[in-house]
Write the structure tokens for this entry.
Amino acid sequence: MAVRMSGIQWQRSSYSTDGGGNACLEVARARDASCLLRESDEPDVIATAGAVRLGALLRAIKRGGLARRIG
């Protein structure tokens, strides 16, 4: 999916700092309401997800569901 980047405002956790070597996940909302994700150390690599799927991913992470599937 092509994402037009003008006007996108990226956000990161308040727990993140701007110190060297700090890789943070940044999130933004696209004009079509999809969620955009990127790592601060690789800002040109952007993943997109709908709100429902992103919510499912976050719930799986919180309950530790991904560690069992990956590991």
